[in-house]
Design a protein that fits this description.
Helix content: 25-40%
Structural class: mainly alpha
Order of helices and strands: HEEH
Strand order of the largest sheet: 1-2
Radius of gyration: 13 Å
Number of strands: 2
Largest sheet: 2 strands, antiparallel
Number of helices: 2
């Protein structure tokens, strides 16, 4: 299945990995919201989060 017309064009050009929910059919990607929530959570916990390695990592500047 492709994200095609269901994901905004600018997002399709920036994001590299898209995932869809099999229950609702919505598409998800790691964008600026994931980075902001991760930063907030790290501050609240007082420690860095363990993030997966790779270009779709929430801490990767290219994913934002």
């Amino acid at each position: 299945m492709e994200a095609g017309g269901e994901v905004p064009g600018p997002v399709r050009r920036r994001a590299t990995v898209f995932r869809s929910c099999p229950a609702c059919g919505k598409w998800y990607w790691n964008g600026s919201h994931v980075a902001r929530v991760s930063e907030w959570l790290e501050a609240a916990l007082g420690r860095p989060l363990a993030a997966p390695d790779g270009p779709d990592s929430p801490t990767d500047p290219a994913s934002g």
